[in-house]
Amino acid sequence: NVTFTATSTTNSSVQDTVSTTATVNVVAQVLLDPDRNGTVTSPGTIQYTHTLLNNSNAAAYCDISGNGGAHGWTYQYSTDGTSWYASLADVYVAPNGRTATLYVRVTVPAGEPVGRVDVNTVRANCDVTTGTPDNTYEATDTATETTTVVGGELRLTKSVDKTSAFPGDTLTYT
User: Fold this and answer.
1) Count of alpha carbons within 13 Å of 15, Cβ hemisphere only?
2) 27-63: per-residue pLDDT in tens?
3) Cα–Cα distance for residue pair 33/46, rounded to 1 Å
4) Cα(106)–Cα(167) distance, integer angstroms
5) pTM (2 decimals)?
6) What does the DSSP 8-state code read for residue 112?
7) Of the four, 10, 52, 82, 152, which is 20 to 30 A from 160 by CA?
């Protein structure tokens, strides 16, 4: 509800007031970014991070899923990086440019050939709602993850020539 009051500029005791209702239409828009590329060994695990942006003027409740795993790879989803699920339901994202961070963990089993590629399209299917019946709108977006199996495993081991040192001593790292 909005109330407008007009007051005379020559006589401040003369005024009139009118009340009306202003209705703001719901704008539903979400963005899931960025697309990701990565490499992993077999067996191995890689984790991707995405940002879900709610440009709507109402809250979004989003279901998150993907279509990867054509080669028996496992895709899991999380909002905190510690609890993992096959998909996510009702991920809340506040309106007006607020974001939620999504994590995707890809587990590749042993025996996958070098060069094998799997593409996962992560989908955010969101209900944008003012919280009242009949005021729910749909908004969706996707992000693509391309994961490639690489051969070998690089390990780095660091050592130093002294077990203790004092300020000014020279240490040689190998």
Assistant:
1) 10
2) 899 999 999 999 999 999 999 999 999 999 999 999 9
3) 17
4) 45
5) 0.76
6) P
7) 152
